Amino acid sequence: MTTTPYQLIGGEAAIRSLVDRFYFYMDMLPQTRGIRDMHADLAGAKEKLFKFLSGWLGGPNLFIEEYGHPMLRMRHIKFAIGPDERDQWMLCMDKALAEVNMDASFRRELRNALQQLATHMINQEQESLVQIDEPH
């Protein structure tokens, strides 16, 4: 029998803990204010992320059962998400992942998969940091 990521992370309790810690950091860290401001209702967001991760990791497909296919980019298109927002999201996730007891190699694999998922959500170009001076 194949072990799923859902089982490797510790099932429902571990995913709830991960999601709780993730939103704790989003709510508390000043450097994540950009993504925090996108969330009017943290309780609803917590429940949706928990349900999504449950199915995404190979456990019960709670999100699909309630909301249908995740279609993550479409659901997030109304938010301006660039590399900065992705990095803020990953900062919260990295801190939360560090607090959930799991095998270190699995944590790295999970983090990489979540990084790819977060990068997929980018729908805005990053503004150029280089300004070109106009000729005088």
TrEMBL record:
Keyword Metal-binding among record annotations: yes
CDD domains: TrHb2_PhHbO-like_O
A GO molecular-function descriptor: oxygen carrier activity
Pfam families per UniProt: Bac_globin (PF01152)
Keyword line: Heme, Iron, Metal-binding, Transport
PANTHER family listed in its UniProt record: TWO-ON-TWO HEMOGLOBIN-3 (PTHR47366:SF1)
UniProt family annotation: Belongs to the truncated hemoglobin family. Group II subfamily.
Protein name: Group II truncated hemoglobin
